[in-house]
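Translate sequence into structure tokens.
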Amino acid sequence: MPIERKLAAIMFTDIAGYTALSAKDETKALNLLDTQKQILTPIIKEFNGTLHKEMGDGLLFTFPTVTEAVKCGIKIQEETKANDDLNLRIGIHEGEITLKDGDALGDDVNVASRIEAFAPSGGIAISSKVQQNISSLPEFEISYVGKPELKGVSQEVKVYCITSHGLPKADEIDEPVIVESKSNFNVFALTGGILTAIGIAFWITVGVFDVSFGGKAEVPSVGILMMENLGKEEEEFWSSGMTADLITKVAGAGLIRVAPLDDILKLDKDLSIEEKAKKLRVKYMLTHSFLIKDDGFDLWCKLENIESGVALFSNKISEPMDMTTQMVGKLANDIVTSLKVETNQDVMKASTSSPEAYEFYLKGKHKWEKRENKEDAEIARELLNIAIKLDSELIEAKLESSKIDWEIGLSDKAIDSTLIALTKAENKHNIDIVMKCLTMLGFYYNNSNQGEKGEIYLTRLLEIAQQENNEIYKASAYGNLAASLNKRDIDLAEKYNDKAINISKRLGLKHTAHIEFRGLIYYQKGDFEKSIYYLNQSLNTYIEEDEKTRIQWNLFNIAWIYSMKGDWDNALEYYIRGLEIANKIGDKYNKAEFLSSIGFVYIYKGDYDTASEYQLKSLNIQKENNDNNNIRWSYQSLGWISFMTGKYDESNEYYDKQLVLAKELKDNNNISNIFLNKGLNSFYNKDFTQALENLEISAKMQMELDSTIVSKIVLETMSYLLLTKKMLSKEYNVAEIHTLIEEQEEIKYHINFALFKLLEDASYLKTAYNQIQEKADNLEPDIAAKFLSYPIPKAIVEEWEKVK
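Result follows.
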């Protein structure tokens, strides 16, 4: 079929809320697509429209005239208004299309698809071309929306919406909202894994070490308050440790909702028991107290139906200390029996028969939870090791020790300990511990870049959870599998994430972490708007629940996405909010991350003095934390700041320090980039021989590396490598550089300047000049003046003055 080009009105439709509906009821969602087609087909035909493409719930049409397209859109909204699920957004634009094999292609088709997102549900967004066509027709009323930068669209587009005929008005926009910007230099290219790594690792931690609940109960719901220690302060480890173990054991028994320990710890002690139950959203409450005596201990416990005020049981237990190992199992059995919970678990089974081992286990666990420094962590490990020596079958101590090993960076040891624990649990047929081990192994392997191994254990977890009909672990398995698959099979990851959400909703479980991860999935798909939407949903819930650690990561991830969009002001706002949280909870690791990220934003904004202040603060904390992995990134950003401000020797000192750490970590991607940056320093320091040596090392390493990883820095390297050869009067070939230029969507100003010098083409100089002027226009006057005085911007301005 021949290719045909013509002018046409282009309409793009999309069903608002379709993704959420699909996750909730796939059959209903598919039926809705059929309904949409049945309603729209005769309307489209009436106005001489042609259907070219179906993209999930989106449809692409063309019309001979703008008026026909607009009238068709209005009738579509009128006809679909009665269907509560069929809420359409419509975008209409006029332009040139290319017809090939029945499909409509071209930049103007992209415009129609992009402006559709600015239409309200049930409304119509139009471009300025459409607005001009119908502005003289009195039957149409129009409202201005804004002038966004549209992803994948080169032309400037103003967006309006039609407000007559009962159509809703769209919200006005002041800033670009869909632009996807490339980073302005290679620091972000190297740290681009931060969002996904942090976000996923955090989310999996929720799945591994906590089970959280909320919503209206379809199964028994219980809050297990902290066991009150009636004895000495140093005996607190008994009550806190047994409470944590009791919550875990009851939560794993079957279909029972147990308020998580974090929520229990946040309760105001002055609240009445009724107020506490309301905050925890539970029907039953367990209160208990513990007192050590010379000849043993006393334990008081009561399980109460808060709605009726009736106690299901109320006991006082007096036993010798040898019986402490039995208490968690006895209390768990009393709870699940009283609440008539069906379970396949032997909840009465004690974790150890050795009271001495159990005491050291609880002491170690308590020390770790209350740790204030590295010494506390070492003490906790030693206490747990003593427990394991006293009873090598005390699996819980092994798992607790593995968590500490993981947190302090001994990942291999953490995995080995968990594998041993898994074998012991399997031999004892302790299914609950088996599932916990499998979940932890999935987490450890996924975060050690061994995702395929992690999937093996998570798949086993899913199989066992299905056999045991344990819905909680099924949700955890699906959620963690989604995290594991996120970078390899995003569609399957989304499917598993939806399954985790559906199970959680059905059981009334809290599913905020799954919503958060949905935001990360949309990030991976490149849909930044939906990603921010879902991350803000989870953020708001975490704020309501005062989950400060989780608030931090949501703030970080949202800020990161805004930075990827080039929206530095919003990015800065969220990073600063995250820093405030880190300061409040004394989280030094994340404080360093936020400081560094704020520094990155100021680098991009061209305020290098402020950027340097934040990066140095971050570096000092990283050194306190012995965090060599992040120390090297701080060296890189400080090296770049020094380079941009013309301090080339200082810059090289930072890069040399970074190189030592990168070689220790055997990170060849990073090493190749360091030599590129050292080459740039030497070039602008007019040491062209040294520049050539560094750039050739970088280029050679890039050829040996995965091209997808280094693609963003190949053009930069080759531009300066060939220019250096030119300066040294050596032979060079510019043929390859043109291919590299064509592959780039955006070229940074210092590379454009190099291309101008290399190819002697003033268009590159003009682009570089416009880029630095645009950056300067967005800075405060004094900062802008300083930015334009730095060597590269200054050289660009001087060259432009010569040729303009």
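Note: The domain at 4-162 is CATH 3.30.70.1230 (Alpha-Beta Plaits).
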